[in-house]
Amino acid sequence: MIGRLAHITICVCTFKRPELLTRLLGAISALRTDGAVTYSVVIADNDRERSAEAVVREFASKAAFKVTYCSEPRQNIALARNKTLEHAEGDFIAFIDDDEYPCAEWLSELLGALRAHNADGVLGPVRPHFEETPPAWAVRGGFFERPRHATGYRIDLKEARTGNLLFARRIIEGVSPAFREQFGTGGEDVDFFRRMIEQGRVFIWCDEAPVFESVPPSRANRRYLLRRGLLRGRNNFNNPKGRIPKMLVSTVAAPLYALMLPFCLLLGQHVVLRYQIKLYDHVARFLTMFGLNPVKDRDM
Fold it and tell me: CA-to-CA distance for 207 and 107, rounded, in angstroms?
C-alpha cells in the first residue's frame, strides 16, 4: 500500500523477571522513530504461573502502541519464541531479551542499516550493564564483552544470536517451526540462523543500535561462566551438523587445555578462567555424546 509505514513487531520472551521486564517495557516506550516506522510488542510468558501477566496488562493499559500478552506454559525458549511469532503482525520482527534494554534509536538504526545494505536481517551490539561493580578479573578477561564490527559487516554463524535482532518477516514464511523444540534450553538461535544462512539469507551488523544486558552479581562469578561453557558445549554438540569433526577437535583440544591450566596461573586468574571455560566447552561435548546432560536447565 502506497504511503503505509513499515511496522515492526518487537518480540520478548520472559521468565520470572518482572522487574527487568518493567525496565525493558519502559525503554521500549521511549524509543524514538521520528514517525518513520510504527511498532507493537508481543510478550510470551514462559512461566506456567503467568508471573509476567500483571506487569504486561498494566503497561498495556497505558501504552501508546499495541501490546500483546501470551503464555507458553512449557518452559522451552524455542516454544516461547514461536509463540511470539504466532502473534506478530509486522513487516519486520525484532527480538530482544527480557534482561536487556535498548538505546532510544534502536529500531530506527536497525531498520536503516537493513535497508541501506539490502539485507534480510541485522544484528546489533549487546553491551554489559553491571548491576554492581564487577570483580577485577571479570573486567580484565572481558567475559561479558562481545565482538563488535563496522556497520554493514556480514555476520556468520559463529556470531549470530537473537539478543538484538531485526529481520524481514518474509524470511520465515513457510518455515515451520521457526525455532525447533529440541533446542529448548539453548542453541535454538544458532539452529535458526544456520537454516536461514543455508537458504541464502544475509545478516549484517549495525554498530549504532546497542542494547544493554543486565549482569547481576549472580552472573559475574566463575560458577556462572563455567556453567555457560558447559551449556555452550552441549548445545553445540546437539546441533547434528558436523558432529564428527567437532569431536575430533575436542579429542585434541580438551587434554591440551587441561595441560595448559597450571601454566596459566602465571598470567592471572582471568587467563586461567578463560581456558577453564574452553575446557568445559569441550568436555560437555563428550558428556552429551554419551547421553549425559551436563546442564539440566538454563537461566533464561
Answer: 12
- Whether the pLDDT of residue 300 is over 50: the answer is no
Residues 6 or more apart whose CB falls under 8 angstroms from that of 299 comprise: 219, 224
Lowest-confidence region among 122-126, 187-191, 287-291: 287-291
Determine the average pLDDT of the residues in 166-184.
94
Domains in the chain, CATH or no CATH each: 6-215 (3.90.550.10), 222-289 (no CATH)
Cβ atoms within 10 Å of 291's Cβ, excluding its own: 6
Residue 48 buriedness (CB in 10 A; 0-12 / 13-18 / 19+): exposed
pTM of the model: 0.90
Q: Which long-range contacts (CB under 8 A, 24 or more apart) does 270-273 make?
A: 270/137, 270/138, 270/140, 270/141, 270/143, 271/141, 273/137, 273/141, 273/143, 273/222, 273/225, 273/226
